[in-house]
């Protein structure tokens, strides 16, 4: 899988102000394991540019920090 | 404090659930949900009373997933929460968890003064279907809150063995449209004297088209010949949904008096109306409808053509053999 180069363009957007440092809920539920923690900030981000748009990461986030942008043709 | 055989990881998260820091409690409750360890049930029940609605909501979801009956009563306490998400999640969980054993507790909750609890309990009673709930529901018909009146009259139609309920008829003339819509659908399940006449009146005179549509649906369920004049009149209704369900009701109470209105409906702008009118004409078994039905075999809508052909076949099948010659 390709590494994400421009994080603003990835489909899984993490609001870092809401992301909890000790929480790994989104990382655990992602079937593709594309979400990881930034070791410097402790916040989750999308490391690999691959997504099934299955949405558990968004649903499981306890603070609602994750938004998955689903492409128009998949809506 | 905890049993000695408890998984140390679970014990650690349970301990964190008592933290004064909201972020830590959120992480703990979410992790306990993911771990799915039964030892976490009691602490999660405690988390239902957390000061943060976010923690409460996740605790409810976790207990829903455990589906352990011990959580049912604490979850019922969340039905009256001031936070909409908490109430909604508790209701969703209890919809799957409650059973007839919980009826008495639910009926007790109806006596509380909390409107949210009452509304949610009325919804849950629809799952239990027990007619014992009827005396507890009836006082809500006079409630000043229209949501409670609507929920109560909707619940009424889910109660088994209830076929008569005079007070429900009054709600069909309620000033609030949503209440009238619910009451009109409920009337289709009742057999009180005057129900058909009332539904006919609603079908032809109510100002709200959804009430008129629901009246047609209820008359379809009741299938009384007394309703035919009103149904014929409703075939001229300006709303197509009303005409559609009226045509369906006329399929049940096949009567030649409806034939002119049904033939006219074969040229309706809406294909659903044309299709249901064609089917209703087929049920009349009257050969006079055949020329009109033959014309709809060229209808632009495939459904209409198929159902017209079926109606023609049905009429021809019901005719004496000699007429085929």
Brief sketch in words of this structure:
With 75 residues, chain A is an alpha+beta fold.
Kindly describe this structure.
The complex is a heterodimer of chains A (75) and B (325). With 75 residues, chain A is α+β, with helices and mostly antiparallel strands. The mean pLDDT of chain A is 89. Chain A is globular, with a radius of gyration of 11 Å. Chain A has two helices and four strands. In chain A, strands 1-4 form a two-stranded antiparallel ribbon. The longest helix of chain A has 5 residues, at 25-29. Chain A has helices spanning 25-29, 56-60, and strands spanning 12-14, 35-37, 44-46, 66-68. Chain B is mainly α and 325 residues long. Chain B contains 20 helices and no strands. Chain B has helices spanning 8-16, 22-35, 41-47, 53-66, 72-77, 84-97, 103-110, 115-128, 134-137, 146-156, 166-171, 177-187, 195-205, 209-222, 228-234, 240-252, 259-265, 271-284, 290-295, 302-318. The longest helix of chain B has 17 residues, at 302-318. The radius of gyration of chain B is 27 Å and the shape is elongated. The termini of chain B are far apart. The mean pLDDT of chain B is 93. Chain A binds chain B through residues 20-25, 28, 60, 62-63, and chain B through 23-24, 26-27, 29-31, 34, 54, 58.
Helix fraction of chain A by DSSP (H/I, runs of at least 4): 10-25%
Taking pLDDT < 50 over at least 5 consecutive residues as the criterion, the unreliable ranges of chain B are none
Q: Could you give the count of β-strands of chain A?
A: 4
- Mean pLDDT value of chain A: 89
Described by strand count, sense and barrel closure, the largest sheet of chain B is: none
**What does the oligomeric state look like here?**
heterodimer
Structural class of chain A: alpha+beta
Number of strands of chain B: 0
Spatial shape of chain B: elongated
Q: Strand content of the residues of chain A, in percent? A: 15-25%
